[in-house]
Design a protein that fits this description.
Strand content: 15-25%
Strand order of the largest sheet: 3-4-2-1-5-7-8-6
Number of helices: 13
Structural class: alpha/beta
Helix content: 25-40%
Radius of gyration: 22 Å
Largest sheet: 8 strands, mixed
Oligomer: single chain
Length: 378
Amino acid sequence: MTDQTLRQEVLTARRIVVKVGSSSLTTAAGGLDADRVDALVDTLAKARSQPAAPEIVLVSSGAIAAGLAPLGLDRRPPDLARQQAAASVGQGLLVARYTASFARYGVRVGQVLLTAEDASRRAHYRNAYRTLDQLLAMGAMPIVNENDTVATAEIKFGDNDRLAALVAHLVRADLLVLLSDVDGLYDGDPSKPGTSRIDQVSGPQDLDGIEIGSSGKAGVGTGGMVTKVEAARIATGAGIPVVLTAASQAADALAGRPTGTLFLRTGSRSADRLLWLEHASSPRGALQLDPGAVEAVVTGGKSLLPAGVTRVDGDFSAGDPVDLLGENGHIVARGLVNFDARELPRLLGRSTRELAQELGAAYEREVIHRDDLVILRG
């Protein structure tokens, strides 16, 4: 199968998520580069105007970087409070710039700010999907970013590359395009002689022995090639091919031309929330399981019942994600718990029937339902 044939997956994509990094939109000192924003908008607007044009969702970094210069900061601050302040200023500037630029083509912009908690809770997840789907149906351009002004270290996605992979799954995209300041994945440091770009990755085995850098050129973002490869792993594992290339080559990427690195799908689409639960949630506690419960949950596909829990760690509320631990303390699964941490200790080791008789019908239920569980060990 030729590279040109493989890029037909790009040409046939009907819904595409495009992610652009801070370094592709701003100067190293902070502040938006209007010409770069306009160039990206020109490319996206042209792609939308073609016959049988795909729907596009834009995941855009740049809020914190855009807020640096207006607040008199010469670099990204290390503390969360000032990052949130910069995001508060910069997010308005970023969306205003996009709004003005897309207006040249008569395209409306819709801002969607997400936190990891929005993604892992059932009602929030459904609302996020409905909002994005409706914006697309109405011809608007959804612009997604992490809600940096309120996200704490415990509930952050960590980087917008991973957010983009999860949004691609959320909106049932056919393709994810990651735009960077590097024109693809290289087999070493691209600034050094003797390295070459990898045109195609068909699976993890193709990356064996590859040195993957951890930071970008401009120093205004949080990602780097490591986060992009991880995002590609998440997306392709969920059945979504990925193109990684430079922002300057976005038009080629969307036209299906063989630019950058193409990551082929390695899996099939899974239950939506479970992907978020595995990759976007931060556990608020842990439950120790007995061997029978581990077997039932991991191998048998069963719900977790109170009788199989031997210990409760952490301070969590009903609906929070918690890790499930085997006897050796290894994490075997993660799930959304149905009880508060303070409620669980008196339920441990007891059958649901016994609990219902003593405490009422509300206690005749699973600690974690199997539909709210993701297995983290084979």
